[in-house]
């Protein structure tokens, strides 16, 4: 059974909280307040919906996009590249034989601004670090200085029976890919190895480079 609303003498509903019928102003205020509350609720809902949508996009990216660490590194056959270049130019290029876990991501013969040809190979080490090999063909001391960014040698070591100058900048900031470097004169070339790898990895590469060039001399 439907209960009829209680009204006053004019037929207007009596509001229980007031104990009387609303005035026109009170009715307008109540409706305005209700409308404002609906807008607030709608805004909150929209914000929550937008947040949920954003989180969904992020989750989709995480699920679909493979993280860089999971991407298989594309290797370059630097030995094959060197063989082709040696046939074309008659130059003797360093082709270090390295143990498992090493790879190269680039290998090219370029000519610097000084006109000196440079055999350039980028190596990725077993510890996921980088060492760049720069072999300046018929290079000189000025070429070496440019490729170690003008740094003074901080020491020396022997690797592969060759004396290498050491440039250690690991305690400095913003060294980029030249936190540590080695340089040595090998035949008619000067070789600079520079990167972020460990001492052991540098010495492994240095010994392999020395063995490669001595074996071709």
Tell me about this structure.
The protein is of the alpha+beta class. The protein folds into two domains: 14-64; 78-216, MucB/RseB, C-terminal domain (Phosphorylase Kinase, domain 1, 2-Layer Sandwich). The protein is built from four helices and nine strands, in the order E-E-H-H-E-E-E-H-E-E-E-E-H. The protein has a seven-stranded antiparallel sheet, with helices on both faces. Strands 1-2 form a two-stranded antiparallel ribbon. Strand 6 and strand 7 (162-168) form a beta hairpin. The chain is rod-shaped, with a radius of gyration of 37 Å.
CATH superfamily of the largest domain: MucB/RseB, C-terminal domain
Total DSSP E strands: 9
CATH class of the largest domain: Alpha Beta
* Name of the CATH architecture of the largest domain: 2-Layer Sandwich
Give the tally of structural domains.
2
CATH fold descriptor of the largest domain: Phosphorylase Kinase, domain 1
**How would a textbook summarize the main sheet?**
7 strands, antiparallel
Order of helix and strand elements from N to C terminus: EEHHEEEHEEEEH
Strand order of the largest sheet: 3-4-5-9-8-7-6
Distance between the termini: 110 Å
- Choose one word for the global shape: rod-shaped
